[in-house]
Design brief:
By secondary structure, this protein is mostly helical. It has one domain (4-63). The chain has helices at residues 4-13, 20-32, 37-48, 50-63. The N and C termini lie far apart (41 Å).
Length: 64
């Protein structure tokens, strides 16, 4: 199991979310789901790819 401290430091290093918003989001996910490894990885993935994911969502909603 990944410790919460490790997740926090990893999030600080990634450039997905703007600063503290990403850290709060990540902490909430890990807190709610009690930080199992899948959620931690999912959270880090979303955090690191947030811009491209939001761009994809915008493109999808523009087509509808």
């Amino acid at each position: 199991m990944i410790s919460r401290e490790k997740i926090k430091t990893r999030v600080r290093g990634s450039k997905g979310f703007e600063g503290s918003r990403g850290k709060i989001f990540c902490f909430l996910i890990t807190y709610i789901f009690q930080a199992n490894i899948f959620q931690a990885k999912l959270c880090l993935f979303i955090n690191e790819n947030f811009r491209s994911i939001s761009r994809m969502v915008k493109n999808l909603t523009a087509d509808i």
